[in-house]
Amino acid sequence: MIIITIRITVMRMDWKTYVTHGNRCFHNKHWVDAERHYGLALHAVEKEEPVIHQNGDILFAWLACHHNLATLFQSQSKHSEARFYLDTPLEILEKTLGNTPPDDPFFISLLRAYQTGLNALCLFEKAMNSTVASTATSQTQENVK
Q: 48 is in which domain, residue-wise?
């Protein structure tokens, strides 16, 4: 009897590759694939524990993964899911900022990440408010007819 062993090597992509694939899927409106790739990117980045290891580049990659998922869900009008991916990093960053002394060199990276997150949330809220306003205007115009 002959036994043949087949060795399969599974190539794990890094978070940058997942984001690149996610972006490609997003631009082609392949929402399910984009969500999967962005989710895998987020999972890969979270393994690096950006807040614990105080790595600014990984911290911003982590934040970008959340924002990509938020943008993906917002483009599909899944606003509560989008909001989740905007709120979650802000909550973690806020807690971490509260536990980090201002003279810690990583404090500035945390603060910048928090500001970036707040800006994204403000843009989301502005878009939601303009959507609500335009919907209300359309309904009012329909009622007037």
A: 15-129
